[in-house]
Amino acid sequence: MKKGIVIREMQDSANDAKFTKLRLRVRRRQANVPIIGIIACSTEKAFSFKEMREQVGRLHISNKKQVVDTMNMFTNKGYQFEHFPIFKTSLNRHQLPLDLGSFDKQQQNHFKTARQQLQYQWREDLISDINKKLDGQHFNFYEIDLHKYLKSDLARLLKRYDLMMNTYVRNFLVTNNIQDWCDFVQKFTVPDY
């Protein structure tokens, strides 16, 4: 009981001289900032509820059904490419061994095909789907004033799409394909025992 009272008194910096005189090391609790969703709320500092509500409102996507449906469609389309092969690593035993020239041609052809497929499906399909689903009722896609556009909900939504797209490309296409390529190359090396 007494220890709890002493530790509580140590939290106040006005009592430092008292504890220094008693030759006790001042122990203060480290601030633990809980994260609620994606917003860090400090429990140590007093914060304005109104400011926090406005911050949450800016981070929230939308309460419009069409916008939420478009976001879900975008997410599902991104997950379709979770295991999209950029390199041709599924060579069967009948195709092996290959000379390096034909292997290089196969990889280049496969890469061109994969790039065109991604370009078509991600760029054209997503842009047309987003434009169709959000069709100007909620957003002005043809805003001329840059200042108005940057403050609009459309700019926030497109920024979110951009961040999601970057995450999908980085995680699915780059990381997964590099790991797949490394596994493929390891098949042709001598293992370390």
How would you sum up this structure, described in words?
With 193 residues, the protein is mainly alpha-helical. It folds into two domains: 2-55, no CATH class; 62-186, no CATH class. Helix content is 60%, strand content 2%. The protein is built from seven helices and two strands. The protein has helices at residues 2-10, 16-21, 49-59, 65-79, 100-134, 146-151, 153-186, and strands at 35-36, 39-40. It is flat and about 85 Å long. The relative contact order is 0.09. The mean pLDDT is 76.
Question: TL;DR?
Answer:
With 193 residues, the protein is mainly α. 60% of the residues lie in helices and 2% in strands.
Please write the string of helix (H) and strand (E) elements.
HHEEHHHHH
Indicate the structural class: mainly alpha
Rg over alpha carbons: 28 Å
Share in helix: 55-70%
Average pLDDT over all residues: 76
**What characteristic shape results from the CA principal axes?**
flat
Number of helices: 7
Fraction in beta strands: under 5%
Q: Give the number of DSSP strands.
A: 2
Largest beta sheet: strand ordering = 1-2
Number of domains: 2
Q: List low-confidence stretches.
A: none
Profile the largest sheet: 2 strands, antiparallel
**End-to-end distance, in Å?**
59 Å
Describe the SSE topology.
Layout: H1 2-10, H2 16-21, E1 35-36, E2 39-40, H3 49-59, H4 65-79, H5 100-134, H6 146-151, H7 153-186
Antiparallel strand pairs: 1-2
Helix pairs in contact: 4-5, 4-7
